[in-house]
Amino acid sequence: MTAYKTFSETDVIQYVQELGYFKKSQDLHCVEMGDGNLNLVFRVSDAKNNSLIVKQALPYARCVGESWPLTLDRARIEAEVLLEHFKISPEYTVNIIHYDAALATIVMQDLNAFEIMRGELVAGKRFPHVGRQLGRHLAQTLFYTSDFYLSAKEKKRQVARFINPDLCQITEDLFFTDPYRENERNNIFQPTETLSLELRTDDNLLAEVAELKAKFLNNTQALLHGDMHSGSLFVDDKTMKVIDAEFGFYGPMGFDVGSPIGNYLLNYCGSAAKWDGKQKANHLSILKDITRDTWTVFAKEMTELMDDKTQDLALQSPTYQARFLRSVFLDTIGYAGCELIRRTVGLAHVSDLESIQETNARAVAEANAIALGKALINKRHSFVSIEDVLLEAEAIVGA
Length: 399
Ligand code: SR1
Ligand code: MG
Fold this sequence. Notes:
53% of the residues lie in helices and 12% in strands. The chain is of the alpha+beta class. The chain has 2 domains: 9-109, Phosphorylase Kinase, domain 1, CATH 3.30.200; 115-397, Aminoglycoside phosphotransferase (APH), C-terminal lobe (Aminoglycoside 3'-phosphotransferase, Chain: A, domain 2). Strand 6 and strand 7 (105-109) form a beta hairpin. The chain starts with 8 loop residues before the first helix and ends with a helix.
């Protein structure tokens, strides 16, 4: 077994040649282009621009440094989650070509014809197909990895295979704990400080967040991607591909459905504060459509799959299935609300808010993200449909 070492660009060229993806005689070009929080990401290409991506996990969190050690097993988890999801939803999942647990490397398809969705949304581009496609991808990947479809024994085997304590702890801390407490990891924009302090004394909010965290800790409903924000989605004008599944584990379905919705709404808050007139109205309208489509397509396909394909006799009860979908809806809205708050006052910020140059506009965007996050968490039990979420966004942020 090859011992772990952190790759340089030269190492990557040698590595892909040894694996046989490029001939040893070929002149290759390699560049490290990772801009995420955790890993190295290399693009290696030949003179004809045939290319591959090599991703390597570092033994620590890249955004913080060696003081935050992190398991290399996340590369195995990422590769295996993406391979499982690819089997179920190949159209919408990046193609993993090879992975090496000891070197913590993954070789994958280069999606260089695509763009990361977050940057595109921040630039005001439109992707009307993404909501429908993501809704379908979520229904398929979550249903086929759940107790509705797998035998109880196989499901337990899969739960064990995808135990991911280090990466889950990041989410447990950054999503549900730190934003509601004093913690040196929090990153608070000065004008937002008063609002962030109010979060810490809101007893009802703290209880609702505790409930969502307990469900995240305990509820092994399906094999989640675990970090389905708009930086994990590659898009072009026709389709989308999901990448970056190192936070994958067996958890509550609503976490994977709520994360992208929280990110569309973060963009909603940012766009409403920095634009006006037609540009603002058109972009907010597209974001509402994507939010609506993600949930409604997910719910429709999940309902059909539960109805047609459920293997477990007890879980075939239509009344149970309707109750189950309602509980996923409530979780989805709650986790979307947590995402709005943690991306505003926690460690990991997003360019949807942070790239706003004008201080007052950014302060308004952040205040709205916190207010909308709180409303989604606190009021979710009174929401009947996704339209209630959109009405709440319009009432707090504008339309
Ligand atoms: C230290 S990791 C910070 C964030 O980046 C990842 O993409 C996850 O969203 C995590 O919470
Ligand atoms: Mg990531």
